[in-house]
Amino acid sequence: MAPAIKTTSPASTPAKKPLNVGTALPYEARTALHLKGLVPSAVEDFSAQEARAYEQLRNKGTDLEKYIFLSWLRNTNLNLFYRLVLGNLKEIAPIIYTPTVGQACQEFSHIYPFLAPPNSVDGLYIPLNEVDNIDEIIQNYRASIPEGSEPETTVITDGSRILGLGDLGMNGMGIPVGKLQLYVAAAGLDPRRCLPIVLDFGTDNPKYLEDPLYLGIRQKRPEDAEFYAATEKVLNGLTKAFPGIFIQFEDFNTPHAFGLLDQWRDRILCFNDDIQGTGSVILAGFISAIKLAGIPAKDQRILFVGAGSAGVGVAKQLVDYLVIEHKIPEEQAKAMFWFVDSRGVITANRGDTLAEHKVYFARHDNGDTQCKNLEEALEYVKPTALIGLSTIYKAFNEHILTRMNELNSDARPIIFPLSNPKTKAECTFEEAMRFTNNRVLFASGTAFPEYTIPETGEVRVPGQGNNMYVFPPIGLGAKLAKPTRITDSLIFAVSKALSNTLNSEEIARGELYPRIERIRETSAQVAAAFIHQAVREGLAQDQFWIDLVAANPASSATSATPDGTYSQRVLDEVCKNMWAPADSVSQLIPTKL
Ligand SMILES: NC(=O)C1=CN([C@@H]2O[C@H](COP(=O)(O)OP(=O)(O)OC[C@H]3O[C@@H](n4cnc5c(N)ncnc54)[C@H](OP(=O)(O)O)[C@@H]3O)[C@@H](O)[C@H]2O)C=CC1
Ligand SMILES: CC(=O)C(=O)O
Ligand SMILES: [Mg+2]
């Protein structure tokens, strides 16, 4: 079912000025634009430019230098940037996204470019004391972008929990910028219609408050009441200016991540990537893992290390799966989960007041037993699956991995160290392989290198359990079908669809996720399933897609039991709507200059 990716014309959005194509500008255009003599005489095609850009990228000494080079390229030649990214996605994704984007955020105020607007307009920086002027800020943005390229997708953070790196304040802007690049690269969103936003609401991180080059407001974060009132003003302004805009909440600290989602999920078209996106992508990998583990789903004992937005989001998604797919009653499904946080296993009688998001999974069956850490929890729970969303580097040490292997001698242990970036990962792929006699079913948040089993020479590829497999197609599906809101069953359909995308080679090799090189193809498939489900649930508002799905039903799935299927006709149409960089300059420059 591999779709041929046929894309929309890159020139479909009119620009005020011809796009910068540098040495690809033809002689006639140089004459018309009075650029004769101002550019080297060679007229190149895009592949020659790409080769030069790739050489320059390769010559950078560090990943941060590569990140800076790519940012510059994006700001000066968008088309070439995306040609380079798409042509080398496996190599470049870890630079524009995790892990390097983490370092870039930490250094954001030091590497911020000196370019002037409009080239420097990466998105919106909204200071707390300016939220009453949100309409003016949006108007300024509008004036800086080409006509007809109003944003349709936005990623918003306040920088309060950037990856596993904590509160980075305004420096967190690198994350919306990076996420939106993946929207474009992975799912063909139009880059000119993607809007990164940072809510510059202060920081509680003294390092930045004291940094003379820090570019955000120098104050501590507001109390909850002020935070929610300020976000309300921003979101109202945004949805008034750009009705139907798709909003991704990203890397808010856990209480605010849950709070914003609860407050807005039924009011506007939004979702939280760390709760729902991570839940969805890990469920997809888990579906594949339990097929290989050798233990039926109902007998899994799942130990989470970390009970924040990501941990709880993932576990809730797994519970839904066990209930819907395996017909396990909810209470019984919930009892298959244990959580360790910074104080040990979460129990109802632990003696502390549990944060609201932890209450659902608190154990009531522990009697007097209170495990104080992962080591104790491991012996008490005897898990079949160990999921790390704790931000604790090397939490899965040799002892933990070896014990997981021993405890699962009759089956393959599922071990997912999902914390980002690499410096926060609970273990590496190599460690997980070595200490489990290569039996592990593995996925990590940040990509690890392949591992060659020394005894056999067999090369194993680690799964990357990262929400980048799902937020781009969710955004694409939302842009096309225009659902009124994002429901849990839509997210569930996305998980099912992603788990269905593995091709026969990936399945034969026992992999849990599709290869990143195929991400455009799999994003199209997942977006098609999303659209089918949005129509099935009566959420879709775009008549074209409603009619198309009605004429091309995919399966007998219902809104309560989504199966992630789609029809070839809808898939073909999704592919036609994916943006791609131009292959030749004539696609970008109007014939009459
Ligand atoms: N792979 C992916 O796609 C994604 C990965 N992530 C990653 O997940 C991680 C967590 O994110 P999020 O849930 O939002 O963050 P939080 O900071 O809210 O959660 C961290 C959790 O880890 C717990 N913890 C801290 N120290 C320990 C310890 N020593 N032992 C056990 N648990 C501990 C914390 O405990 P306590 O509650 O007591 O403070 C908390 O429950 C980040 O690294 C992030 O990058 C997030 C989204 C997607
Ligand atoms: C991947 C991601 O969203 C995170 O680590 O927060
Ligand atoms: Mg995140």
TrEMBL record:
Record GO biological process: malate metabolic process
One cellular component term from this protein's GO annotations in UniProt: mitochondrion
Binding site for (S)-malate: R161, N420, N466
Cofactors: Mn(2+); Mg(2+)
Molecular function terms, GO-annotated: malate dehydrogenase (decarboxylating) (NAD+) activity; metal ion binding; NAD binding
PROSITE patterns: MALIC_ENZYMES (PS00331)
Cofactor remark: Divalent metal cations. Prefers magnesium or manganese.
Short name of any one Pfam family annotated for the protein: Malic_M
Residues covered by the Malic enzyme NAD-binding domain: 275-535
Domain Malic enzyme N-terminal residue range list: 74-265
Active site: Y97 (proton donor), K179 (proton acceptor)
Protein residues bound to a divalent metal cation: E250, D251, D274
Keywords: Metal-binding, Oxidoreductase
Family in the record: Belongs to the malic enzymes family.
Record PANTHER family: MALIC ENZYME-RELATED, NADP-DEPENDENT MALIC ENZYME
Protein name: Malic enzyme
Organism: Coemansia brasiliensis
